[in-house]
Write a structure and sequence with these properties.
single chain, alpha+beta, Beta-Lactamase, Heat Shock Protein 90, five-stranded mixed β-sheet, rod-shaped, transferase, Sig_transdc_His_kin-like_C
Length: 448
């Protein structure tokens, strides 16, 4: 998942948006909290200012000429309270406090307010100010002026704002994530188009990638096109060498055909047949070089395997080997017939050396879109530990004493290379007949 560029962009956007909104929410929450707290403190200080202006000592008693005008001060437990406490004598309180006396505790408050128990025991937040009231000439009376309001009122105001802020931030996050997803989809569209262009080149419907995308991809497209041109030049050189080789084989093959006429009748037909196979391969390479590209064709396995058996039967006639062919007539692989013939021919050639009495060729569908061809014999087989070694070039299996050489050691390696060139593989195992089983898979032809 982490290899997905779309996922990385989405994850990066999500993290950036989350961090930005968290910081924004924290800053806005702090600013609003400070604003509300300052407003409440200003209101309480305004009440204290009114009390300070109206309080005086008359006939030795502390009196208030006029109470603050807010009607809530005259309603019990209304939410607005004031109290004036002299250093000596009885305190003055608003009617809203009823019989409650405020005893502020600064340690228990929040946001710089002192805390106290209000009417009905509900907590209130208190702003307190100390001053000295002049009494007569040279006299002074220390006072503590207090204004208070319910703590839950401040908590409710802040809580309502923070709930609205969270909803707003979540909505903003959803909008920003949608915008980021849309930006990613639009931004990655040129890469999707580039992938389709590369697929067209691979399919052979285009030779180069069109450079009409954003400037950020121009350098990449230029490098890919340079690589494609280099590959095309290399293929052209390889085709030229193949053409030269095919031309060079023409004359020796003609001489071999003439020499084959001097062989005994029994060997003449076989020699001419083998020379003709080589000639067909040379003609095929010449045609491919002229066309500039080898056409991928489908090859019917039953017909091809029948021809291979017919060619190899004379070789095994002296050993009395029985050929068993179990290949449905409708099976076809998406591969060139000459390549399939060379691949199977190498394996069958080995089977003719090692088989005692039987060689079996079978084929059928394997995994989706693949055809498995199985060539088995009743020879000595191989040890499982030798399977990987025998697929290497130059590795030769041993024949029983007196049965000649085991070959060049190239056949199985070449057959495996051909199978892998078509996206398949060649594997070795134990045959039902008791000897070696070679399984080769090719892509199935369209419609199989």
């Amino acid at each position: 998942m982490m290899r997905s560029l779309r996922f990385r962009l989405a994850a990066g956007a999500l993290i950036a948006i989350a961090l930005a909104l968290l910081a924004t929410g924290s800053i806005l929450g702090g600013v609003f909290t400070d604003y509300v707290v300052d407003r409440y403190r200003a209101d309480m200080n305004a009440i204290i200012d009114q009390l300070t202006a109206e309080v005086e000592v008359r006939d030795g008693r502390l009196v208030l000429d006029r109470e603050p005008a807010d009607p809530r001060f005259r309603l019990p437990a209304s939410g607005r309270y004031w109290q004036v406490v002299p250093a000596r004598g009885d305190p003055l309180r608003s009617a809203s406090l009823w019989d409650t006396v405020l005893a502020p505790d600064r340690a228990g408050g929040v946001h710089g307010f002192a805390a106290a128990d209000g009417p009905d025991g509900k907590p209130v937040l208190v702003v307190e100010r100390a001053l000295v009231l002049q009494v007569g000439e040279g006299g002074a009376l220390p006072l503590r002026m207090m204004a208070a309001f319910p703590e839950e009122e401040l908590a409710s105001a802040l809580g309502g704002y923070h709930s609205t802020l969270r909803l707003m931030l979540l909505s903003t996050a959803a909008v920003l994530m949608s915008a980021a997803y849309l930006q990613g989809a639009i931004g990655l569209r040129p890469l999707t188009r580039l992938r389709h262009d590369v697929a067209r080149v691979r399919a052979g419907t285009a030779s180069l990638i069109e450079d009409d995308g954003p400037s950020e991809l121009s350098l990449l497209v230029s490098e890919l096109n340079s690589l494609l041109r280099e590959r095309e030049n290399a293929v052209e050189r390889a085709r030229a060498r193949a053409s030269d080789l095919a031309h060079g084989l023409k004359t020796p093959l003609t001489v071999l055909l003439q020499l084959a006429d001097h062989l005994p009748e029994a060997e003449r037909a076989l020699a001419r047949q083998q020379v003709e196979l080589v000639r067909q391969r040379a003609d095929r390479q010449l045609q491919a070089a002229r066309l500039g590209v080898e056409q991928m064709v489908s090859t019917h396995l039953a017909s091809l395997c029948g021809k291979l058996v017919m060619v190899l039967s004379p070789v095994t006639r002296g050993k009395g080997i029985e050929w068993r062919l179990d290949v449905p007539g409708d099976l076809a692989v998406q591969a060139d017939a000459a390549d399939v013939a060379e691949c199977l021919g190498n394996v069958l050639d080995n089977a003719t050396r090692y088989a005692h009495a039987a060689i079996e060729i079978s084929a059928g569908p394997a995994v989706a879109g693949r055809i498995a061809i199985r060539i088995s014999d009743d020879g000595p087989g191989i040890a499982p530990a030798d399977a990987a070694r025998l697929l290497e070039r130059g590795e030769i299996g041993s024949l029983p004493p007196g049965e000649g050489s085991g070959g060049s050691g190239l056949g199985l390696a070449i057959s495996r290379d051909i199978a892998r060139a078509y996206g398949g593989d060649l594997t070795l195992g134990e045959a039902r007949l008791g000897g070696l089983a070679v399984t080769i898979d090719f892509p199935a032809a369209a419609g199989i």
